């Protein structure tokens, strides 16, 4: 009886360790990185919803809004590529702090600018994130820091927790998107003016992130013997992954959070408060999917986890434009969110696993940048589609492209296994 009880206690301890915030053995630096990721995600959560409402309030058409969203994503791609290629040559803490300064400048720029070209320029050179995930230059730096802090066995779990922190804080940020509406009603200012104040808050949060990154230790820096070459023996795998990831991201670009919010605003006449609540619950559903991704990946592998959860989610997204009831549309989006994000930690873990340690900064960047570029092209096309027809072509086209990606990923990489699965 005692042995049964001891076995049960041991199993409970293992289960508790598996789902605590930081995996066993994770360094103190991981906590600071997670905290920085969290505050940035909170800011991304509200600006992704406020950006289309702000631009609509300034009188911009869906095509112009799509162009500005495209500019923000193109700029993020260029910065991410540059950071990934020099990550082994410069102090990573310094790169993060510079990124935080750029985030401060971005918030101030969007708060002060109202003209199309100034907004486009600030969006291009800044850190504004109109999507649900993190597509900024912070991503390759943080991923490279994280992957060296745990064993291969805990790598997917750590990336799942990284995604959970970002998604939960992004969900809270979505709720904060309703603040301008409250300010407008109570203080008597215009809603557009209240949104400008939220962009200043976005910049202030960049300063908070800088304070959280300052305590990072020298352990996060590249080893003195870190090679200067961008890619070596894993070049073919990385470029292949970048190609299929780009197709997925091109599809995602049609439904980036800002563009999806714009379609919901126009189709169902939503308020900022209602939209924030919808995206809050969608983010909570995505968080549940991150929790399920880790045990599923351990059981069936990273590539099957990515494909067999992502594919049905895309079919659900394609169904949304065909329903006229807001509750039904929300239900489809919620179920999709439960499935669609399982591939995020699995994808990050897979890329870091199938390349050598020295290639990880470049691999993170080279697989992220084409995704950002592909994502950037789609909002402009999506905005144009919305000017042609109120039907949700953006969801149909986006879901179809992402489903094609799932098939190609399975066919091309099912035999390329990470070390723990080999």
Q: How would you describe what is shown here?
A:
The protein has one domain: Growth Hormone, Chain: A (Up-down Bundle). The chain contains 17 helices and no strands. 54% of the residues are buried. The radius of gyration is 21 Å and the shape is globular. The protein is mostly helical and 422 residues long. The N terminus is likely disordered. α7 packs antiparallel against α12 and α12 packs antiparallel against α13.
Could you name the key traits of this structure?
Growth Hormone, Chain: A, mainly alpha, disordered N terminus, 422 residues, 0% strand
Outline:
The chain has 422 residues and is mainly alpha-helical. The chain is built from 17 helices and no strands.
Topology at a glance:
Elements: H1 2-19, H2 28-57, H3 62-86, H4 92-112, H5 116-125, H6 138-147, H7 152-176, H8 179-187, H9 191-213, H10 235-253, H11 257-268, H12 272-300, H13 302-319, H14 326-340, H15 343-353, H16 360-388, H17 393-413
């Amino acid at each position: 009886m005692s042995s049964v009880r001891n076995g049960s206690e041991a199993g409970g301890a293992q289960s508790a360790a598996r789902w605590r915030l930081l995996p066993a053995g994770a360094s103190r630096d991981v906590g600071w990185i997670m905290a920085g990721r969290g505050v940035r995600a909170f800011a991304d959560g509200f600006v992704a919803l406020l950006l289309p409402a702000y631009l609509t309030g300034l009188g911009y058409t869906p095509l112009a809004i799509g162009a500005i969203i495209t500019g923000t994503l193109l700029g993020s791609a260029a910065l991410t590529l540059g950071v990934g290629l020099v990550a082994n040559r410069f102090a990573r803490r310094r790169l993060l702090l510079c990124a935080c300064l750029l985030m401060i400048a971005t918030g101030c720029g969007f708060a002060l600018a109202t003209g199309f070209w100034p907004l486009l320029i600030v969006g291009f050179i800044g850190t504004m994130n109109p999507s649900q995930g993190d597509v900024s230059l912070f991503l390759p730096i943080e991923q490279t820091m994280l992957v060296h802090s745990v064993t291969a066995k805990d790598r997917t779990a750590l990336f799942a927790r990284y995604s959970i922190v970002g998604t939960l804080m992004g969900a809270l940020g979505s709720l904060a998107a309703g603040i301008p509406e409250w300010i407008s009603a109570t203080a008597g200012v215009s809603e557009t003016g209240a949104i400008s104040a939220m962009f200043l808050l976005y910049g202030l949060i960049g300063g908070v992130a800088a304070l959280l990154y300052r305590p990072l230790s020298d352990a996060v820096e590249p080893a003195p013997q870190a090679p200067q070459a961008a890619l070596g023996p894993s070049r073919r795998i990385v470029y292949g992954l970048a190609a299929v990831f780009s197709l997925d991201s091109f599809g995602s670009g049609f439904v980036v959070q800002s563009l999806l919010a714009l379609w919901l605003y126009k189709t169902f006449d939503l308020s900022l408060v209602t939209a924030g609540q919808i995206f809050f619950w969608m983010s909570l559903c995505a968080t549940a999917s991150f929790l399920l991704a880790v045990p599923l990946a351990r059981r069936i592998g990273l590539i099957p986890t990515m494909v067999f959860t992502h594919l049905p989610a895309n079919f659900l997204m394609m169904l949304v434009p065909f329903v006229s009831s807001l509750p039904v549309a929300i239900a489809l989006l919620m179920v999709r969110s439960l499935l669609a994000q399982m591939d995020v930690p699995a994808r990050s873990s897979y890329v870091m696993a199938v390349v050598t340690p020295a290639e990880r900064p470049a691999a993170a960047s080279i697989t992220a940048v084409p995704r950002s570029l592909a994502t950037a092209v789609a909002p402009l096309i999506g905005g144009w589609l919305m000017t042609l027809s109120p039907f949700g072509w953006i969801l149909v086209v986006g879901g179809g492209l992402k489903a094609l990606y799932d098939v190609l990923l399975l066919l091309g990489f099912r035999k390329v296994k990470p070390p723990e699965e080999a």
